Amino acid sequence: MNTIIFDLDNTLIWDEKSTDEALDATCKIAELAESSDSALLKQAVISQAHALFRELEDHAYLENIEVTAMEALWARFDDGAAPELQRMREAAPFYRKQAWENGLKQLGVDNEELAAKLADTFPAERRKRPYIYEDTFQALRSLHTRYPLMLLTNGTPDLQKEKLFGVSGLSSFFTHIVISGEVGCGKPAPKIFEHCMELAGLSADACLMVGDNVFTDILGASRSGMASAWLNRSGQPLPSNAVQPTFEIKSLLEIESLLPLAPIG
Question: Is residue 214 part of a domain?
Fold first, then answer.
């Protein structure tokens, strides 16, 4: 085993924190404008976004490549040849505005102009917050001099590239970058893991998949015959319906100690 494949969201970058803080900042604007409770609006918008997301024409495709309702609130969908992504380019502005408008209405606020402002504000606030974990660069710097590193991430191409290239120097560690929206399916489908192996000329026993999500990263690795390392930063118990990872770690810095990986060359 000599190649490490990394997930991106909530493994290398702290996507949950970025989204949460951007929602807080956006909802605060509504609180100041309408004296509405920002915490209640936050929950309402999340709920409405998920409901609207399920109704989108291309929901099945987006679910297949693992785009989330919250990502659709700030993705541009301006990259990728798939017709579904091209249609979302047109649909996304309406989806964003409707999510905020419905969230406000859930709190008794009927203000279309404010909804439009919030729909534009959230993407800007999210783009201000490219958070990364403290151990990310230290681990990657240590590993990449000896082991080939790949990135395998679910999502729409424009957004995942923006997240990756928005953190200076992060992309330089990876010999291959695979995005589900460019392949047509996402983790845990074996096809996308097989695509990674084909790109690098590898067999499953040469790879270690590292990720935070047991139902995408770890399940997909298991289905593909790869070893896996579940990054469980918060020490949560393994869900009863999840596959058993090969390893469980709390920090990326533990990776080097997992296996006797052979150095490059």
Answer: yes
pTM: 0.94
- pLDDT at residue 260, as a whole number: 66
Q: What integer pLDDT is reported at residue 36 of this predicted model?
A: 84
Does 7 map to a domain? yes
SS (H, E, C) the chain: CCEEEECCECCCECHHHHHHHHHHHHHHHHHHHHCCCHHHHHHHHHHHHHHHHHHCCCHHHHHHCCCCCCHHHCCCCCCCCCHHHHHHHHHHHHHHHHHHHHHHHHCCCCCHHHHHHHHHHHHHHHHCCCCECCCHHHHHHHHHCCCCEEEEECCCHHHHHHHHHCCCCHHHHCCEEEEHHHHCCCCCCHHHHHHHHHHHCCCHHHEEEEECCHHHHHHHHHHHCCEEEEECCCCCCCCCCCCCCCEEECCHHHHHHCCCCCCCC
Q: Which pLDDT does position 34 carry in this prediction? A: 87
* Structural domain count of the chain: 2
Chain segment 159-174, per-residue pLDDT in tens: 999 999 999 999 999 9
- Is 262 among the domain residues? no
pLDDT of residue 263: 44
Residues 144 and 75 in one domain: no
238 is a domain residue: yes
Spans of the chain, pLDDT less than 70:
260-265
Name the residue range of residue 213's domain. 3-14+132-257
